Automatic annotation (TrEMBL):
It comes from Buttiauxella ferragutiae ATCC 51602. The keyword Transmembrane applies. The chain crosses the membrane at residues 22-48, 60-82, 105-123, 130-148, 154-175. It catalyses: di-trans,octa-cis-undecaprenyl diphosphate + H2O = di-trans,octa-cis-undecaprenyl phosphate + phosphate + H(+). Keywords: Membrane, Transmembrane, Transmembrane helix. Residues 61-169 form the Phosphatidic acid phosphatase type 2/haloperoxidase domain. Its EC number is 3.6.1.27. This is undecaprenyl-diphosphate phosphatase.
Length: 202
């Protein structure tokens, strides 16, 4: 029943040879490159901002990074425990983007972007979390549209992201102060020159 629903949703979203070429090219850009917003925003929040907000921003960055580490690890474990072929491996639908024929559930891209969006929703601002969640949905659509993922792969990524944020908060409650102090000290040593020049925040 669930697999039938998965296939039916896939066919509703998946592109066909009649789909506009410009839309397929746009979907390829979204599927491959939009995920780069994750490391970009993490770097920005750690390095720059109003002085009175830097500690809060960096704590948020550490919690987000922790959630991402947990989510990617969980995704890898689940993928090996419950392997599921990608649509093009089974010859289902149409494929418009080259991808290795590895396990599809849960989606790594979906896991990362939804973990990131939920982290912002929980620990940053509601508006930023909602915006990133919308970006996550667009990335999820593009990878199903291009035929490299099933819709439920993306739902799996969302659920893994939610669990990972909850686990990250639990770890932070136990070790957060120590983690922040250690990482901030390491940053001050490694970026001492840039901090002195005023290129990045202390």
């Amino acid at each position: 029943m669930l697999e039938q629903l998965n296939q039916a949703l896939f066919l509703l979203i998946n592109a066909t040879p009649e789909s506009p070429e410009w839309l397929i090219k746009l979907a390829i850009f979204i599927a491959k490159d939009l995920i780069s917003i994750v490391p970009l925003l993490i770097a920005i929040l750690w390095l720059w901002g109003q002085r009175q907000h830097m500690a809060a921003q960096r704590m948020m960055v550490i919690k987000t990074a922790l959630a991402l580490i947990i989510s990617v690890s969980l995704s890898w474990i689940i993928g090996h425990l419950f392997p599921h072929d990608r649509p093009f491996v089974t010859g289902f639908g149409y494929n418009f983007m080259h991808h290795a024929p590895d396990d599809s559930f849960p989606s790594d891209h979906g896991t990362v972007i939804f973990t990131f969006a939920l982290a912002f929703l929980l620990w940053h601002r509601v508006w930023s979390g909602v915006l990133l969640f919308a970006i996550g949905c667009v990335i999820a659509w593009s990878r199903v549209y291009l035929g490299v993922h099933w819709p439920l792969d993306m739902l799996g990524g969302l659920l893994v992201g939610l669990c990972s944020c909850l686990l990250a908060q639990m770890v932070w409650n136990l070790l957060g102060k120590q983690m922040y102090a250690s990482l901030h000290q390491a940053y001050r040593v490694c970026f001492a020159l840039f901090i002195r020049k005023g290129w990045v925040r202390d």
